[in-house]
Amino acid sequence: MSRTSPHNSVAQFTSLGKFPFRLFGIFLAGFFFLALQHFAFADTDENIKNTEPIGEIIVTADRDKTKAITDKPASSSVVITLSDKRDRYIELKDILSEQLGIHVREFSGSGHLATINIRGVSAKGILVMIDGVPINGLWATGVDLSRLPLGGFESVEIYKGGGGAFYGDSALGGAVNLVTAKSQKAKNHLALTFGSFSLVELKSIMNFQSEKGNLMIALDGASSLGNYPFLNNNGTSLDSSDDFSDKRANNESDSLGCLLKYSHNLGEESRFSVVTEINRARRGVPGLLTFPSPNARQTDERVFFQTLMEKDNVLNHTDGAFRLFFRNDILDYEDKFGEATGSPIDTHASDDLFGIGAKITRYDANGNGLLAGSLEMSHEALNQSGNTKPGRSKATLSIEREKHLQSGKSVLHLASRLDSIEGYNPQATFRIGASHRQSEKSAWRASVGNSFRVPGFDELYDNRGLIVGNPKLTPEKGFDFDLGFSRQGDSSAIGITLFSNHLKNQIVYELIGGHRFKPFNVGKSDMAGVEIAMKKQIENITLSANYTWLDARNRGDDAASKNKQLPSRPEHELFAQIATAFDPVKLECNYHYASGNYVTFSNTVELKPRSRVDLRLKWNRDDWTIAGEIRNLFNNDMLDIRGFPLPARSFYLTLSHEF
Questions:
Q1: DSSP string, 385-445
Q2: Model confidence, pTM
Q3: How many Cα neighbours within 13 Å face the side chain of 77?
Q4: Is the per-residue pLDDT at 593 higher than 90?
Q5: Residue 75 has what pLDDT?
Q6: Domains of the chain in sequence order
């Protein structure tokens, strides 16, 4: 299947005549007001340092203008470094499942579909990005985490809470950003993994450096039969007499990815970088255990490209950046016998995104605040067999203001954004946040803001099988706030966050007769909860635990589901770890727990609680590492989605070398 490029993207930009110039003028006025305020108060505070325990409130680091705007100290965010995780077999879903407020939903084990919700907001409301470029497609139920190999990435940035003011569309509940590795001073890395169910993975990261340029090449290939055993209840969960031992079939997966990044210094204050990622994955679609699909197949391909130009001191204490990006996603789904859905499907879809953006950041002379403004235009187009070829243009203007007060003890963060999306009224979002360092060991944080999600083309135009699209859908809306406190001592730390998110105008599929479903804007929901993180160091033993309590309620008008717990949102989740190190050996024991959660909106069918214990052992000598892992040590029966059993006890062994 040949790839299609965005049709007439440049022409689409000229069609943005409906851009709201009155609101645009208001935003410009606000921009200049904040700029004047910035200059009026510039150079009045002392240089500061930020401290943040447990990675939840403020990142521990000296104030650094290169990351001040991305830290967003008033938000509930965390940055996870990946360099110390490359020496074992790990997927993005494994990292996210250990974080507060995040629930990972797995369908069929390694290499297969996995999605997340954050603080109760479903996968479609979570924005996933590579270097700030969205990879959420127009025809998807949420980004598949298994399609994001981690080899060439340096860190994962997680933003929890409505991110409309920072990221725009689709960040109803938060965002996840994969940051490509910096090739400067980086080591070469090679890792080979063997595991249960015939899993083999090879990861390689090579760096080539010159006086002014650096090239990184990351390769990641994996293959698995996925034929794990499980207990088949034969579709009768209340009757164990007909249960039998079964094995997952048509669950194989193969993937190959390549990421290249070239960085070049044009001078002391100028540089540019080019990032290209190519990824291809092919896998079987095993289907429900009671309705298996032995012949269904899915192939996914992605091509990602971004070039970034950066110039320091374009004006005094003012930096500038310009970027151009492109993403092409291809999906081939074949179920010619209708095994998985009851209706034959042979889908070939191509989703193309093209965009340009510019950003200017003004810093106080002493580094105690900043003002940033950005403008971006993009066009996304869908080309699918048997359907129309819709496209969508977007223009966004955003402003962020960060101010340090009381000699750096307090930080005020203001952000606003205007998104003009073709076919919809302009969407204005904001975020107001503040953090206060009460002492050297404790800090507070609070934020409030709104967010939105524009309907996907599947919800608007799909007309296959049992689904009927609704072109009259309007954007979903969200309003949220959070309040957090943290304290860090010499050998212990604790953090607690309260959060609440109200969603309205949600898109819900309803039965319209003849076993056909159509989406409507009728949903409302409230999600509130508590996140608690604790850590204790006792000599060479580290104890840590993350606990999330979530109360997610349906507030729609349907009597059967009103005030009921939302499906697929466990009320309690816990991750606990005991780690110890005796050079050159490190041992970890991890415990995952998720309480029972409902399958239906009316709460008539409930999944049982899920628990898992994992053991990890790592031996390191010089630049060689051997890592072994046992997952699901006690071989518990587990599932996140009804009818999709998860892997039994499994073993992994990784040999890695840095040079």
A1: TTS---EEEEEEEEEEEEEEEGGGTEEEEEEEEEEEETTS--EEEEEEEEEEE-SSSEEEE
A2: 0.86
A3: 26
A4: yes
A5: 58
A6: 9-658 (2.40.170.20)
